[in-house]
Amino acid sequence: MSSNFQPDDTTSEQDKKSAAIKRSKFDWRYILLIAIALILGALALYFSPIKQSRNFYDYADQSMLIGIPHFWDVISNAGFLIVGVMGLVENKRHPLALIPSMSFAYQLFFIGLIGASLGSSIYHWAPGAFTLMIDRIPITVCFISLYCIILAEYLSPKLGKAMLLPTLAYGVVSVVYWYMTDVITGRGDMAPYVLVQLLPIIHIPLIVWLYPNKQNPTKYYLYALGLYVVCKWAESNDEELYALTSLLSGHTIKHILAAIAGYYVYLGWKKTATKKPCG
pLDDT tens, 139-191? Predict the structure, then answer.
């Protein structure tokens, strides 16, 4: 009489795979990323309302050239337009999406750069709450589309795709919420919008470190992230850098470096995509 507990190699392999899948749901790396997101969300709620400085609209660049106010802060946005157009043209010629199911997000990143060029130009031409909202929405689109792309490339294509539209909606609403509270109180609550910028800055380096993948353009993402950190430093030293250079303010330098960061992302996708056969 045969035992009901005889080992079966096939069943054993299936059990191992099933157990591995179950364990992956409780992967400490996932738990760490989720914990960070929850902590940041809790901190944003705790410190809400987070208000920008009273002199936020007072930029060092007060130049007026060929009828354009704040000339260098306006004209330096051309870099975003150049990179955005380059990306869309190259994507049409040779698809850049490393994850085909996320192809819309790759295009959206470049569309966001073009929008940031136009929005930031409008804002710096006439700084104010409404034009700042126009500036921040395409920046949000860039941040979130890139963040979801990296989730798809390193963690799970399904996760990246599932998060794209909800996080885009959250990002846009966070900017509109800031503007509405600014209209009401005179100093809007930036707490929800702060998460849009802060979470990717913390998550992205962790993700590429915790989930190494040689097929992805990791070094280009890190170059872009490093440049963005320098951007924030330049922005916070707007007047000091203007006094040092006598021409370019910290905010102008921020625009230039941020466009270069966008170019590094584009370059990483291009180099990786061209290694793969078309079709």
Answer: 999 999 999 999 999 999 999 999 999 999 999 999 999 999 999 888 899 99
| Residue 65 bridge partners (DSSP) | 68
> Which tokens is 94 given?
């040779």
Q: Tokens 């005889």 belong to which residue?
A: 6
